[in-house]
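[09:14] KT: can someone run the structure on this one? pasting the chain below
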Amino acid sequence: MPLARAASSMFFGPIRTGRTPSMANNRDRKRKYYGSQVVQRYYRKGNGFTMLFDEYLDTPAYQVLTHAGRLILLDVMRHIRDTYKNIPPEKAAKVGFQYTHRDCREQVSEGTFHTAMQELRRIGWVDVKAEHQHYGLASPIVYSPSTKWRDYKPTQDETAKIQRLASNRVRRMSQSRKHRMKYIRGNQDATSTNHR
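[09:31] RB: done, structure tokens below
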């Protein structure tokens, strides 16, 4: 299994594409998809990359995250990818990994970092390996990859937030459509007046 795919499988479980190989082959024969090639051409430099799967981008566990939580989650994935280079996915949860503000590659304050990590733990993106913990106050926390996020149920406040954001998006799209139609009708009226 390729390294990137193994790391993804380790953190998020078996990768499900939603279609069988035969279906994929038949579909690929009819149409070519260039999206990944465009991304690689304009944004990829070097061999390291972190995959973002629709499987979790569309889940409540991701949608309820704060902006800082999403930022730190992506950096956690990068950190896991580099930490488990020589460790197979089935052993990842047992080994665990350390991830502190010092390891974080995003420009966030220490307070924002710790708040985001508590959020990731609460929702189930990472677990804390209690058996690896020391009793010293300065001991780093040992985490492990988790799939509990798949079963996460948003709170009432989080559900209301998701619905409010979705409603605001629909309203903005409706307003934009009205403005566009008004602009088009204005141009049509101006054109018809000029032709008289």
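[09:33] KT: thanks! DSSP finds nine helices and three strands in the chain.
[09:34] RB: yep, looked fine to me
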